[in-house]
Amino acid sequence: MNTTSDPEAQSDLNRRAFLKGGSVATLMAMMGGVPLIAQEKTPEGATKYKTSSPPVNCGVIGLGYHGRDILATLARLPNAPVVAICDKYPAFLNRSKELAPKAAAYADYKELLADKNVKAVIIATPTHQHKQVVLDVLAAGKHVYCEAPLAHSIDDAKAIAQAAKVNPKLYFQAGLQDRADPQRLFVLPFVRSGGIGTFGDARMQSCKKQSWRRASPNPEREKEINWRLVKNLSTGLVGELGIHSVDVACWFLNERPKAVTGFGALRHWKDGRDVPDSVRAVFEFPSGVTVTFDGSLLSSFDTSLEVYTGSDATILVRDFKAWMFKEADAPLLGWEVYARKDEFYKQEGIALVANASKASAQGGATDDPAVTGFTPLYYALETFVTNTDLHHAAVEDFAASFGANADAAALNDYLKDLQKTKKHAATAQDGYEATALALKANEAILAGKKIELGKELFAPV
């Protein structure tokens, strides 16, 4: 009888043994499914978020500010050991060693890809560098998490999505973090089921007084790290900041806009950049709904928020938390009598708390991600690791049953059942569509005009 003390190997053996007596659907069901709604409330005192998936060895390419945030977040996950890091800038690489002291450090990402210990790669390089890195990671046979936007051009974003599609053995997740956020998953049914009444409109904003300019004693390096301030490289405020909230609005509405009108100006940071520091994009949807995004680097007033307006209630999402503001004539739903109420100016907001214990839902404990650390990035990366393990196991089960050279179409059909079990996350197609929309919005902002969005823009790649 074969035995093993390796938990990951034992997990693989158990999956294959079960496959011999059942379908992949049954197998996936036995492995535990996660519905597309908030998690069950946990008992008081229980750990708020747990995972049981085996570890996946991760590599991180791109160690700037966000790359280091990713490293710090991965360090909090019990199943995401960082075994390799890469950045061509020595200062970033050295600084990141403190966050991943056991990881091999590389100045060339192709050396990281040659490291057989790396099974999955998180890409956090500048947006305009994503395409070639993604293609090389997939060619190296490693799973991919690519930050959003996927690319700085529609053609590059499409090439990335197509490469993910033709590599079904590898799991690809676009870095639209909010798609994996339990708070948004909790709000989703309120919007889609008519819980807020007739949907009116939505507005998003990201406002923070900051220059976006990074300093460096090396003029050449300073130019390189300030790519977001260069029009032909940057996706602008709507791409680098607005893509997440606008994508959530499209997801909640379950449709893509038919047109976008843009406004933008360089009003405050006149330091040689050619990217507007104040923008507005108005998206028109076939249903008649409008969604507005405002982005500003010259004012921090009202910071970042998402507002979904309905005839019975309005939902506000801010700082990764959400509240419902009911109209006086709205029907009583029942549950809100027991929910926590937070005071706002002349209004009272009913807290919509995902993954809440009774204590936190009623105000007895904090649900602030800034305190708990359970941010959308945390959930996105945890989802990536969990889904990567499920995907990898299913591909190996398929090969064991039907042969390593079985038809790719058959593998795709086989993997459809897996979708029912994976945690909710942004696919390559989701990433492409959100990126294409953000790029068109940025184009409208730079030109100060309205752009019609044909259905072909969002067609499957």
What does this entry look like structurally?
- The chain is built from 16 helices and 16 strands.
- It has 461 residues and is α/β, with parallel strands linked by helices.
- It folds into two domains: 7-179 and 375-430, NAD(P)-binding Rossmann-like Domain (Rossmann fold, 3-Layer(aba) Sandwich), CATH 3.40.50.720; 182-370, Dihydrodipicolinate Reductase, domain 2.
- Strand 9 (278-284) and strand 10 (290-296) form a beta hairpin.
- Helix 1 (7-19) packs across helix 14 (376-402) and helix 11 (242-253) crosses helix 16.
- Mean pLDDT is 86; it is low at 1-49.
Topology (elements, then pairings):
Blueprint: H1 7-19, H2 24-30, E1 58-61, H3 65-74, E2 82-86, H4 90-96, E3 104-106, H5 109-113, E4 120-123, H6 130-139, E5 143-147, H7 154-165, E6 172-175, H8 182-192, E7 199-207, H9 219-225, H10 236-240, H11 242-253, E8 259-265, E9 278-284, E10 290-296, E11 304-310, E12 313-318, E13 321-326, E14 341-344, E15 347-352, H12 358-361, H13 369-372, H14 376-402, H15 408-416, H16 428-447, E16 450-452
Parallel strand pairs: 1-2, 1-4, 2-3, 4-5, 5-6, 7-10
Antiparallel strand pairs: 7-11, 8-9, 8-16, 9-10, 11-12, 12-13, 13-15, 14-15
